[in-house]
Specification:
heterodimer; A: 635 residues; alpha/beta; MetI-like fold; 8-stranded mixed sheet; 4-stranded antiparallel sheet; B: 342 residues; Rossmann fold; 6-stranded mixed sheet; 19% strand
Chain lengths: 635, 342
């Protein structure tokens, strides 16, 4: 609930809270203090306008309207709250029903709710109020019935999303009863928005009640609420307008207060992030001295390079810490890591695609031999737009569902390659053919949803090829695809990398996939590069205990089924962790005191292999020892 | 003895021309105290089959038998003891635990359904089940939001076990977990299966994982079971060309092993709303009518006819054939077919 408290601490929230406080105090103490004053006849001052003695004037019997407005707070607010609660009481169960009953009945109930929502609510209120009878009771029932459909609709929408959740399925499998399903699993998870709606409904009920009273359907004399006072005053509005304005202002203010409260609470629930860079001290990670990017046997200019790359977010989160990576033209480098290792953010930093709140620092950052940082926005867009292509995990998120595939591909070439529409159309067809999409002439006219998953990923790759990229970043491009399709996309990426001579960064959590496609692998853990090696060395055996453990813990087609798999105990440090030692120390079977207190830097071990470890594994026996040591650890 | 049996199980979604047969007359025997691995690509119906076995999706035709008795799962929403006996663990432990219930409450709910225990005995039982999945007992008071993915999946396993099931269905339980915690969950499932004598149905798209966990492998393609057999046998001597294709696609740690040309996009699973005639696999099949035009039987006849006589109940008219060793009777035709193809 602290989110709610935080939302209410904003200026508007404070106003709403004070308003509610005033209304509550008035409702409780108003009738006690001023009941007598409000009902005192003063035949000397009948139907007067504003005066010093009667700021809001007097009514036909000379009663003071200010006192009457204050005293009427209790009745008006009570009736509004009752109406809103009653509306929720009727609407919520009706809305929850479709998720509990059979399919056919659920459809009937849903249609009924739709019909009720479509019906003008004030008509329902008048209709019901007239049936139940004149007076406060009728008005409350009328308004309750008018707001109930909205509660029903909201509950139904919320509940249907909760009912689809796996935890409800799990409870069903356990055989949990329907009533308990509703009370323990569905309602608690829809309660929050419903509470907010109730607050808003109170404001609405206040206005509707005034309307009903005005029509003579509400509170009957001698009782009086704000609506009744308003309708009495209205007949004199041309003579003494203040007698109508007084109650009207009370209604509007009270309704405003409840609506404001609802809005503020809703904002709190939405959980707005308030941390700003100004609140946060500078990122604590000091970049280490210049680190040379690993030399590689094949010489050639680095198409892209970063050194000591650090990415930080407000609040002290530093998910990337001093990463150095360089890729040459025609080379495919793999970045391997688990979730939270910083592999995707590293790639996004290279592509200048970090979220606006992120802060990036690097001692060296070059794309095509040019540092993009000092460039203007326009120059940056030209540099990246004409040299860099990205393939994401979910191809559907890279394609606009409302545009034909050909148009989307063409747009890229027209924008960055300055091609005419006709030329770009021809190129789209060529590129789709390059990624082996059959009959590209008709395919360009189709929409993304008409493509299968693998074809969409091919189309995204084709989109990247429209600009003849010098750098290709593929972020888990096959993770969402089936194994047989994965194989095809990997072959395509290999062919594309070969023919376009682009520098490619291939990001994946799957070491085996990376080994098939890449020549060099960078292993990331907790925001740092812990090992960098060529695939041949990786297959022979890595030097970092984390890489070794990662390989040993994945079941392969050759794993001995009689032995348990190697496990890695514990969990990786998060992006806020500032402990001094090796990030893997707490999970490492070889860790010593030094590992916990002093962080190893990435250092060359052998040709083309670099490792950040005080105790790198050098021989097969050692690797075996790590794997065996793990098998004795259960958790 | 057979713990769980599916007989002619069919599940359909939608109506009219959008009707989708997600599971198509599947016969599957799950012997007691064994782990049966269900493998296939997305859209193969493996998860739907799993959900049908626990009664989460309505069964259009066929039966689920528990201990050779017809289980009422899927036919009614009634709470029965039968239902409790088959439990399920879901893919995403972030979605399968109610965010408003503590770990202890979630496990207690399963205990309550089983009935019998007093409230006081339940907290002891909660501790027992947490211990079974190697979690500290103080986890019981925490909400799932403070736990890691691996810990949550353990809680989900503990909850399923607390219902005291005989059959446990694990639906892609490691695919949303990080690599470094997957192995611990796999070890746990194997350990529990062995120690508690459970019958497990392990559903996964990852053949290497299925191979590691299962005693029997069942391969599905577009709603149909295409091959079933003992794990080592299926892996070393696959009968169905689809199984062979899956085995070839498993990524292996090896230097630049990616070979062959990129195939055209037709190598993808077809739209399950309009499955191909005859053998569903024939448009992609390397030994089907694409390679051997005379094999029209693949287009015309459901290969499940007579599959009982074939090894691994392979649903393939040319199961034993393969590309390398065709049966004698087809040899001459095949040579012609290849020639024709070229």
């Amino acid at each position: 609930m602290s989110r709610w408290a935080r939302a209410l601490r904003t200026p508007l929230g404070v106003v709403a809270l004070i308003g509610v406080g005033v209304i509550v105090v008035l409702a409780v103490f108003g009738p006690i203090l001023w009941s007598d004053d409000a009902s005192r006849f003063d035949f000397e001052a009948i139907s007067q306008g504003a005066s010093r003695a009667h700021p809001l004037g007097t009514d036909a019997l000379g009663r003071d309207i200010l006192y009457r407005v204050l005293v009427a707070t209790r009745l008006s607010v009570t009736l509004a709250v009752l109406a809103a609660l009653l509306g929720a009481l009727i609407g919520v169960p009706i809305g929850a029903l479709p998720s509990l009953v059979g399919e056919r009945l659920a459809r009937t109930i849903t249609s009924f709710i739709n019909l009720a929502v479509a019906f003008p609510s004030l008509l329902i209120a008048i209709f019901v109020a007239a049936i139940v009878g004149l007076g406060a009771r009728g008005a409350v029932f009328g308004i309750a019935c008018a707001v109930a459909p909205y509660f029903a609709r909201l509950t139904q929408t919320l509940a249907s999303s909760v009912v689809g959740a796996d935890y409800v399925a799990a409870a069903k499998v356990l055989g949990v009863r329907r009533s308990r399903l509703l009370s323990r699993h569905i309602l608690p998870n829809v309660a929050e928005p419903l509470l907010l709606t109730s607050t808003l409904a109170i404001g609405e009920a206040l206005l509707s009640l005034a309307g009903l009273s005005f029509l003579g359907l509400g509170v009957q004399p001698p009782g009086y609420d704000w609506g009744r006072l308003l309708s009495e005053g209205l007949s004199r509005i041309y003579v003494t307008p203040i007698v109508a304005i007084g109650p009207a202002v009370a209604i509007i203010l009270a309704a405003l207060v409840f609506t404001l409260l609802g809005e503020m609470l809703a904002k709190g629930v939405a959980g707005q992030q308030t941390a700003r860079w100004s609140d946060v001290p500078a990122p604590p990670v000091a970049p280490a001295g210049p680190v040379e990017v690993a030399s590689h046997e094949s010489p050639g200019a680095l198409a892209v390079v970063v050194e000591s790359l650090t990415v930080a977010f407000p609040g002290g989160s530093t998910p990337v810490r001093g990463v150095s990576i360089g890729v040459r033209a025609g080379e495919i480098v793999g970045i391997v890591g688990e979730s939270g290792s910083g592999k995707t953010l590293t790639a996004m930093a290279i592509a200048d695609l970090l979220p606006p709140s992120a802060r990036m620092t690097a001692t060296r950052y070059e794309v095509q031999g040019q540092d993009p940082r000092p460039l203007s926005e326009g120059a940056k867009r030209r540099l990246f737009g004409t040299s860099l292509a990205i393939v994401y995990q979910d191809p559907m998120s890279s394609l606009n569902p409302a545009l034909r595939v050909g148009r989307q591909l063409g747009e890229v070439a027209e924008l960055h390659g300055r091609l005419s529409q006709k030329e770009s159309h021809r190129r789209s067809i060529d590129r789709l053919r390059d990624v082996r999409i059959g009959s590209p002439e008709s395919r360009v006219r189709q929409y993304p949803h008409e493509f299968s998953g693998g074809m969409r990923q091919r189309a995204v790759i084709a989109m990247g090829l429209m600009i003849d990229p010098k750098i290709l970043i593929a972020d888990e491009p096959t993770t969402a695809l089936d194994v047989t399709v994965q194989q095809q996309i990997l072959r395509l990426l290999r062919d594309v990398g070969g023919s376009s001579h682009a520098a490619a960064l291939f990001i994946s959590h799957d070491v085996a996939v990376v080994s098939q496609l890449c020549s060099r692998v960078v292993v990331m853990y907790a925001g740092r590069v812990v090992e960098e090696l060529d695939v041949a060395t990786l297959v022979r055996g890595p030097a970092h205990p984390y890489t070794a453990a990662l390989l040993a813990s994945v079941p392969t087609m050759e794993s001995d089924r009689s032995l348990p798999l190697a496990t890695i105990p514990g969990r990786a440090p998060g992006p806020f962790d500032e402990s001094p030692g090796c990030p893997f120390a707490s999970r490492c079977p070889l860790a010593t005191d030094r590992c916990a207190s002093e962080r190893p830097e990435l250092e060359s071990l052998a040709d083309g292999q670099r490792v950040a470890c005080w105790h790198p594994l050098t021989g097969d026996e050692e690797r075996e020892r790590v794997v065996r040591a793990r098998e004795n650890v259960v958790v | 003895m057979t713990a769980l049996q599916a007989r002619g199980l069919t599940v359909q979604f939608g109506r009219g021309h959008r009707r989708l047969t997600a599971v198509d007359r599947v016969d599957l025997d799950v012997p007691e105290r064994t782990t049966v691995g269900l493998v296939g690509e997305s859209g193969s119906g493996k998860s739907t089959l799993a959900r049908a076995l626990v009664g989460l999706v309505p069964i259009a035709e066929g039966d689920v038998l528990l201990d050779d008795d017809i289980a009422p799962v899927g036919r009614s929403g009634r709470v029965t003891d039968r239902r409790r006996r088959v439990q399920m663990i879901f893919q995403d432990p972030f979605a399968s635990l109610n965010p408003r219930m503590t770990v202890g409450a979630a496990i207690s709910e399963a205990l309550a359904v089983r009935g019998g225990d007093e409230r006081s005995a339940r907290s002891l039982a909660v501790r027992h089940y947490l211990d079974l999945v190697h979690l500290d007992s103080d986890v019981a008071t925490r909400p799932p939001s403070v736990l890691s993915g691996g810990q949550r999946q353990r809680v989900a396993i503990a909850r399923a076990l607390a219902a005291n099931p005989e059959v446990l269905i694990a639906d892609e339980i490691t695919s949303s977990l990080d690599v470094s915690v997957q192995s611990a969950v796999l070890n746990l499932v194997r350990e529990l299966q062995r120690d508690l004598g459970l019958t497990v149905i392990f559903v996964s798209h990852n053949l290497a994982t299925v191979r590691y966990v299962s005693d029997v492998i069942a391969v599905m393609y577009l709603g149909r079971l295409v091959e079933v057999g003992p794990t080592d046998d299926v892996v070393s001597r696959p009968q169905h060309p689809y199984t062979r294709m899956l085995l070839d696609a498993v990524p292996r740690l090896a230097e630049r092993t990616l070979t062959g040309e990129d195939e055209p996009e037709s190598g993808e699973p077809p739209d399950p709303h309009a499955p191909p005639s005859g053998c569903h696999f024939h448009p992609r099949c390397p030994i089907g009518p694409n390679a051997f035009p005379e094999r029209q039987v693949c287009v015309e006849r459901d290969p499940r006819e007579g599959s009982e006589e074939r090894r691994h109940r392979a649903a393939c008219h040319f199961a034993a054939a393969g590309v390398s060793s065709p049966p004698a009777s087809y040899e001459s035709q095949e040579v012609r077919g290849v020639a024709h193809d070229r």
